[in-house]
Structures are given as C-alpha cells and as structure tokens.
Amino acid sequence: MSAFRRTIAAAVAATVLALPAAAQSQVAVFGLVDAGLAVNKLAGSGARKVYVTSGSMTTSTFGVRGTESLGGGWNAYFEASPFFSLKTGAIVGGTNQQNLFGRSAFVGISSPVLGAIDIGRGNNPSFLPTLRFNAFGNSGGWGPLWHATYFNFTQYPSFAGVDGLIHDTAWDGQVHYTSPNLAGATVNLHYAPGEIAGRRGVANRGANILYQNGALGLAAYYQHTAVESSGGATADWYTRPFDAGAVRVPTNSATTSHFAGASYDFGPLKAFATWQRSRQEISHIRARTAQASVAIPARGGRVLAEVARTRYAGPAAAAETLLQEAAIGYDYPLSRRTDVYANYLRSRNSHARPDGYTAGAGIRHQF
Hints:
By secondary structure, this protein is mainly beta. The protein has a single domain (34-57, 119-366), classed as Porin (Beta Barrel), CATH 2.40.160.10. Helices cover 7% and strands 52% of the residues. Pfam families: Porin_4. This is Porin.
C-alpha cells in the first residue's frame, strides 16, 4: 500500500471512533444566481455575437447542507447541490451524463482535534488554491487563471481537445480529509479509487496546503487525475463565452499537475501570483501557466485586474502554442448579498490573429 493510501486509511480510522450521542441538527438551503449580458469575438475570428450570460462571475447553484452536533465537539455534516443555468433553467454539468448534483454530493464527520473526513463527490485538490489565489476568484467567464486550469481550448488549432490543465473542479467518489488548523495551515488529502477491475493503481489522488498569517497567504497542490470526473460546470458552454467548441477529453487521460501560489494584502490593494505546470500522459502535452493579479478597493467596490500566460508544448503539436489572457473589471456591492459587475477580457493566441475579446456586465445574488 502506498504512503498516500496509508495516510488516508489512518485518517479514516481516527475519525470513525466511538462518538457521544446526538444533540441537535440544522439544515439550510443555500445558493447563488448570476446573469448578465455580453458581446464576444473569438481569437482568429471576425464574427461577433451578443448573448445572455449565466454564471459568468460565479456559476449559479442551489443546494441543501446540514450539520448534526454529536457532542464533545464532534459533528456530522452533508451537502448536495447542482449547477444550473439562468439562461435556460437547465441543470449544468456532466460530460457523460447529466449530473443532478454536479457541484457537490457528500457526507462526513468532523472533530476539532482530528479534523474532518467526507465521502462522495467534492472539490479536488486544485479547487481551493485556484479560487483563493487570483483576483477573479472562481469566475468561469472572466478569470484567466480559471480558464487556463479547467477549460477546453478548442479554438487553438495546434491543441484541439486540450482541456486546460485539469478537466474538472471536483472528483466523483472520493475520500477527502481536512486537517485542523495547524498554526495557520490547513492540509487537504484527496483519494478517489478508479474502480477499474484489475487495475488497483488507477486512481485520482492529491493534496493541497493552504496557509494564512495576517496579510500573507500561501498555497500549493499536487494532483494526479487518472480517471475523469463525470463532469462539472466546466463541461458546459454557458460559463465559457470565449470558447464555442465542445469539450473533448481523452477517456481516462491521466494528468499530473503541480501548483504554487501566494497573496499579500497591502491594504490599498491585494496582490496574487501563481505558477503551475501539468502533463497529460496520452497526448504528452505539457502546459505551464503563470498568473498575476490585483484587487484594488475603489469607491465602495473593487477594481480587478488579472493576466495569465500558458505555454503548451508536446509531440502532438506542430509548434509551441502560447495563450495569454488579460481581464479588467469592477465589482460593486449593492448589499451584503447582491453585487453588480462589469468586465473586459482579451485573449491572445500565438496561432490565431486577431485577438479575441469579451465585454459584459451582470448581477449576482447569494442566498
């Protein structure tokens, strides 16, 4: 048994100790809705289109989550939630099937001393570091780092079918352990067996570490994806105005990725920087992405600016491909739960001229 699997097994064993009797429980409905209007022109194309966006700043979702106090600081918890489109009302997500709960579907147990462990469909190791270490957060429509990490770039002729660095933000059927806060650091361990008969070594595995000390934030992850997820919102075009193509991912194409990121809150602005690399085993395509961004308070809102450069290389390509995206925007809160935003994104591809762009505005509400 590998050291990683022994660690997961030890975490499971430590968490399923005998527990005190149940005390009380809470269940809540939660969600977020996001819609807007945009105009877009793909890189290398002269054609423009105007369209309604859904989930371009944050993918629209709703769900239910609950906790039950088990006494002695122990809690049981669960969550189930889908992505959906405000444009059509349809559930969003699923490359091979339509996932009702494509965002999350898990149950777990936690202790303030031992940490938390849950089982089901949940975020993979790349998700939290990517979300927290760029100015646009988890923006599927506007975030350059988000595009480079998760989204398919079918408009780049040398790399048709490349699915960013990583196919999805979540894994199916995983065991996920979160450590207690350790002097400002939190460790997450992820393991999802491939469930392929006769191939025990085929599995998704990885870990991340997130550190916060005052104004300084640091993060790193390792992720090996050997079996594709059944799909999240990245499998749907509603949040990808820059890409008119369909997702094409090689079946069980193993990808290994590494990431390091830092942030610092200077007061007048918060700055982010990340570096990541990934390699797909079937295509042998290698991708390296560097990203820098800032969030600047301005007139009650925030100015957001971000640039990411991804260099793709591999034997399947006639030449190296360089993708660069830059975004600038303004996000203004109308209340604690509602904000409006306006953004501009420009995309440059070394194999396609002229540049592409997307401009638009929208409203987002949380509940």
